[in-house]
Every structure is written in C-alpha cells, then in structure tokens.
Automatic annotation (TrEMBL), chain A:
InterPro entries named in the record: AAA+_ATPase, ABC_AA/LPS_Transport, ABC_transporter-like_ATP-bd, BCA_ABC_TP_C, P-loop_NTPase
A GO term from the CC aspect: plasma membrane
Ranges of residues in domain ABC transporter: 4-249
Protein name: High-affinity branched-chain amino acid transport ATP-binding protein BraF
Keyword Transport: yes
Keywords: ATP-binding, Nucleotide-binding, Transport
GO molecular function, one term: ATP hydrolysis activity
Top-rank taxon: Bacteria
From TrEMBL, chain B:
Domain of life of the organism encoding this protein: Bacteria
Claim: rRNA processing is one of the keywords in the record: no
TM stretches of this protein: 12-29, 49-71, 91-116, 123-144, 207-227, 254-274, 294-319, 331-354, 360-381
Topology in membrane: Multi-pass membrane protein
Biological source species: Actibacterium pelagium
Principal location class: membrane
Keyword Transmembrane among UniProt keywords: yes
Protein name per UniProt: Branched-chain amino acid ABC transporter permease
GO molecular function term, any single one: branched-chain amino acid transmembrane transporter activity
Amino acid sequence: MGILEVKGVGKRFGGLQALGDVNLSVQENTCHAIIGPNGAGKSTLLNCLIGKLIPDTGSVMFDGQSVLGRKPFEINQMGISRVFQTPEIFGDLSVLENMMIPIFAARDGAFELNAFSSVSSQKDVIERAEKVLEEMNMADKRHMNAASMSRGDKRRLEIGMCLSQEPRLLLLDEPTAGMARADTNNTIDLLKEIKEERDITIAIIEHDMHVVFSLADRITVLAQGTPLVEDTPEKIKGHPKVREAYLGESA
Amino acid sequence: MFGLDKKDTSLLMIVAVLTMFAPFILNPFPTDSGLAQFNAGYPDLMQRFVIFGIFAIGFNILFGLTGYLSFGHAAFLGIGSYSAVWMFKLLSMNIIPAIILSVIVSGLFAVVIGYVSLRRSGIYFSILTLAFAQMCYNMAYSVLGNPASSYNLTNGETGLQLLLDDPRVLGVSATADGSIPVTNLFGLEMRGSETIEMGAWSFSFSAGYYVSAIIMLLSFYIAIRVFRSPFGMMLRAVKCNQNRMNFTGLSTRPYTLAAFVISGMYAGLAGGLMACMDPLAGAERMQWTASGEVVLMTILGGAGTLIGPVLGAGAIKYMENIFSKINDTVLHGWFSFLPDGLEDFVVFVIHPFVGKGWHLTLGLVFMAVVIFLPGGLVEGGQRIMNLIKRRKKSDDDAAETQPAAE
Ligand SMILES: Nc1ncnc2c1ncn2[C@@H]1O[C@H](COP(=O)(O)OP(=O)(O)OP(=O)(O)O)[C@@H](O)[C@H]1O
Ligand SMILES: [Mg+2]
C-alpha cells in the first residue's frame, strides 16, 4: 500500500472528460513524477487530491484515510502541501511574513486566536522562517513585498512555504516553470537534499525532463485523462508509447 | 513598553497626549474672535470625536485588515446604545455595567450576523450586512418599539428614554428632588464639566470627555496589539489570498468571524458610550447612513492604518459640526469688507458648501482623497513627511558638498 492511493478517479467538466479512470499508487518516501501533454489532466488530478475539486467517481486515500469530503485546510493539516502552477502567495505581505504563515498553521492548527501576543515575540517561528529562507537562498529578500518579486522567485517562495510545514506529501505543479536555469538547478538540489534528509513523499508534475529525470523514482504518463504507463525513469525513457504520445515522436 | 515596539509606543503616546490636551488644542481661538466659530473644544463635540474614533478603530480591524466591507456596523452601535440605556433603567446609573452589557450584547449579535454574512464575500457580504442592519433598524422602529405591546424594547419613534419610575435596583428611581439621576462613574457625573478662563480663551474640561478619551486610548492600544499579533497577520493574509490560506491549513472563516465580532464589539462599546454621555437611544442610530459614515471615516483617514480611522472620524465630525454651523449671516459677517455686490456673490458661491450643504464639502473632500490619496489622510501625512525629509537631506547634501567645491 502506498501512502497515496488513487483509485478509479474520474472528473468531467461539462462535455469534457478531464480525468477518465485514474489509478495511482505513490509509495512512501519516493518521488513520483506525473508527466503528460498540456491538457492531459495533471493539474486536475492534483486538484482532486487537495479538496479543490471533488472527483465524480473513485476514491483518494492518504495514509489509509479518505481525503474526499474533507475541506482543503483539513487535508493540509493531514500533511499534504501543494505548490500551484501559478504561484499562490500572499502578495501584499513581506517575504518573511509569507514564510511565517504556513509555520504558524503547522504549529497552531487551523485557527488560533492569539490576538495579544506580538508577531515579533514568536521567536521560534521567525527563526524557522529565516532558516527556510536561507535554504531557499532568499534571505536577502525577506523584507521585500512578495508581489514585487519575479515569477521564479515567487515560485521558490511558494516551495519554501510548503517545505516549511514539513509535509508528509509534497505536491509540486510545474515547480520550475519560469525559473532561471541556476534557480532550477538549486531547486533540484534542494529537493534532492530534503528527500534524503526527511521522511517526505513527493509527487511532481513537470515538463522539464531534466528535472523529472533528476528527481523521480517512478513516472506516470498521463494522456487525455488516463494513465498511459507507469514505470521507472529508465524504462519510460525508452518506452515507444511514451515517445509517441508525449515526446511527440512517431514510433 | 506595554508589549509594543518603539514606533507603536510613540504613536500611542502622541495620541494620548493629544487627547488629554484636546480641550486646549481644539480651542485655539479666543472666545470673542470671529474665528471662535472654528473652535471644536466643547465637550459635546470632543466626546463625539473619541466615540466615533472607537467606532472607526473597530471597523478598521474588520475592513482594514481583512478587506471585508461591512455596510451594517451601525446596527451594533444602536444595539450598544439600547443595551446601555436598559442597564440605566434596570440596574444603576453607573456606566460600567452599561458599557459591559453593550459590548456583550453587540458581540452576540455580531456572532449571528457575522456567521450568516461571512458565507459570502465581496459585494454579497456587504449587501448581507446592510440587509441585517436595516432589519435591526426596522425592528427597533416597529415591532420591538410599539409602546402598546409587551415587546417594547426600543420605544420606537420616541426612542428609549429614562423614566422616573424605572426600577434601577442598585440605585434610585428618582433623586431626592424628584428628577432622573444622571449617568456617572462611581459618583463622577458624566455631564459634569469645569470651565477655565485664561485671558480671552476659555477651556472646558468635561468628565464625560475624559472617560471616553481614556476608553478610546484603551481601544486604540488593543487595536495596535491586534494589528501586530499573529492573528492580525492572518487577517491581512485573508485579504491577500484566501486560497493560499486554505491550502496552507488555515480555516479562514473563524478568522473573519473573530474579526467581525471584535469590530462589532467596538461598535457596541461606542454605542454604549454614546448612551453614557446622553442616556437615550433611538433607532436612527442604526440607519444605513450611519453605517456608511464609518466606512467614509475609515477610508478618509486611511483603511488598514492604525491612526487613520481616528483621523477620519475627527475630520468628518469636525466638518459635520463646524461647517454646518456656518450660515449666510456668518458668511456676510466674514465678507462684509467686500463691496456689496461682490459680497453677495461670494456668499452665493460659498453658500452650497457650508451650513446644510456641508455634505457637499465632505463629498468633494472624500472624492479628492480617494482619487489623489488612496491611502487616506495618513498617506497625505506620510508624503508631507517624506518631502520634508528629502528637502532636509538635500540641504544636508548641499552643506556637505560645499567644502569639496571650494
Ligand atoms: N475548472 C475547470 N473547468 C472546466 N474545465 C477545466 C477546469 N480545469 C481544467 N479544465 C480542463 O480540463 C483539461 C485538463 O486540464 P489540466 O489543467 O488538468 O491540464 P494539465 O495536464 O495540468 O495541463 P498543463 O500542462 O497545461 O498544465 C483541460 O482541457 C482544461 O481546459
Ligand atoms: Mg497543469
């Protein structure tokens, strides 16, 4: 049994069957990549995992518990954090504040009425936020307004925000899109390091094959809402069906 | 100090000094001079400054931090007033129990109204709060205010007043000389005031004002703490990106509801204080225009800033009370030095902006602020400060470069 078990998940948008019959099993402490052409339903699948969408059919189990019917914040509190395809950050807040909020959420839970203690007295949270910023190579940007950063930096901030929660399952939706080459490599290194140091399972959607082959232990190829093949990176590289459907080569 | 950082402490101190010396500061013109018209240092108006300041400070916790624009906060003001007057009728004329009840009752109403209204955001939230407030207003006016029925909580059109035969179980129904007792704080009468004559000036110090001012300072202090707390940070996050909050494991609803209830309690406190200064309560206090007024105050002063709402409340109450008193006679007095025809013309031009037309002035000022200073009066102040700083700096630079040039 994997830590994440997706069984028979289908999702229809009007006349469009975005997800057909998706079965996916992600093993604990591995990195599972999901690749596929644009519109294959990759993001839709992630949306079904975090409560943003409710699938029409099928079941989604995380660590033996169903996530269906739970609110997004409850699913996050179970240990699933997600980086979005378009960065979701707190634009009007400073980078440091952005980093502190997920740490507060992980420490205090979904709601905490600490209206009378000052933020600056929360030393443990600040320290932790500073440390993650350090790891993300963003310490010098800590007082910047998050909205004023480049797309790549917003993405890195969002990755940092998710990592700061020490999730058990990290979902990454094209995490390196819009990043400079150097930042992409840094991100790969960081994710590799974290994978080795912590108990963390990663599911990553990515178009950049360099990133995929650097990180993934297993790869699922999704096309038109159904998984085509699932295998190790080596096997996927040479798979004719994949070359045809995804890499756009005729066999 | 008090758990605040240096900047906030000095802000609090400045506000404290200004409010404590307000009777002097607001009366800069000698009593007999023509400009005495512009003196605002009389108890009634000063009380209004600080009470509406409290109202706006609380409103800003909701609107300034979370961005949820309530159009029904006057309901809590009215509920606070009614609660306080009931306390004066039933328990005693001491203002403490009255204020406590105002805050509690308006807080309870805020839980219910907030719980329902916060199911929606944006314009739908505003409309829901407006609907609730109008419901309260109409209830107070009709069903709950019919003197003939046994549900007469508000006394309808007449308004809720103190009577000689009210029970006042911890006090007296009537004083020895047969009149209604007055509101007090452990014996200190709210309407009591001292007037000091200093040369051509006269300053009045009212007990009611100082009690309200101290409560305002306390409210302001609490607001600073809320702004600087993790809770305040979460409220700002709500305004920014609720999606990110939800997917970060935070439940936004309790945060917005808590902010709504806190600001409702502030409004109730303001309403209660109004009744303490003048123990009667009428439904018009809940009308939508009153709800709109606090929105104007907050935006005019600077939503989301600490001091903005207080400035906005002061500015609007000043205009309402001072500009509205300038009538044609006063204008003719001012411009009598002009030749007759011109005098009439100038008065004719200014007439629509003063007296009953003060709303026009307010509207124009409001438009100008929203268009040119989206951050309100606070932003205006900051710009002036920056300008001064820059000028100073360039002066310094000039002084520094001079020797080199020699
Ligand atoms: N909320 C929605 N309503 C209607 N259609 C949707 C919605 N979300 C996604 N779709 C459609 O479902 C299909 C799959 O979309 P999805 O975003 O999952 O693709 P993807 O694999 O993530 O593609 P990309 O690589 O471009 O991000 C697309 O055709 C898309 O237009
Ligand atoms: Mg996608």
